Amino acid sequence: MNEIDKHFPESPCPFCGIAEAFPYRPSTSLATSSTSSSPSSLTSSELLSCIPSNDNADPSKTDPSSFIVLAAENVIAFLDILPMTGGHLLVATRGHRRTVGQMGGREGADVGFWLPVLARMVSRVTGVSDYNIVQNNGARAAQVVPHVHFHIIPRPETLPELKSKSWTMFGRGMREELDDEEGEELAEEMRRVLREEVMKMEKGTGRGKL
């Protein structure tokens, strides 16, 4: 057994369950291609196919519910069901990788492409310009789910009151579970704004450009 495995309980990976429930659905042109392409080389319509439609984003596909925002070839993004603040988003590799060191170069490139786009989207949806991007590797480093994921956590001017009276990034027992109706509405709005961000990139009006 790998040394890092000893610090986690043996159980099905919830993030792998989300990845399986929300498969990558490439556009027709990509679906007929024998090779995959990096996100930076895709057209806007091909990138838009990475964002699930409302019909394909049913939260009840997993238990507990999953509020999916992005279902790309190598990257998935969904709301944290125990958010530190409103709009707390998780960005994970689709494949099961326990630590960043286990990621392949293509996975790293795809995460690198989507992370700033998703960060801009979170800022727009929440109206909060300040945010943390946090990534942990291993139980001693506060990694709770042993599957590579990045937290995008908005930092509003007024932080939520925590039981310890201080801002603890990953304090257990201090975070309230996301309401299903609220989560579904928020994820739908995030997908809408993410589509706008993708279109901005093609037009060269966003910070990124295809």
UniProtKB/TrEMBL annotation:
It comes from Delitschia confertaspora ATCC 74209. Pfam families: HIT. The active site is at residue 149. It comes from the Eukaryota. Residues 55-162 form the HIT domain. This is HIT-like protein. A motif (Histidine triad motif) lies at residues 147-151. One of its GO terms (molecular function) is catalytic activity. One of its GO terms (biological process) is nucleotide metabolic process. Transmembrane segments: none annotated.
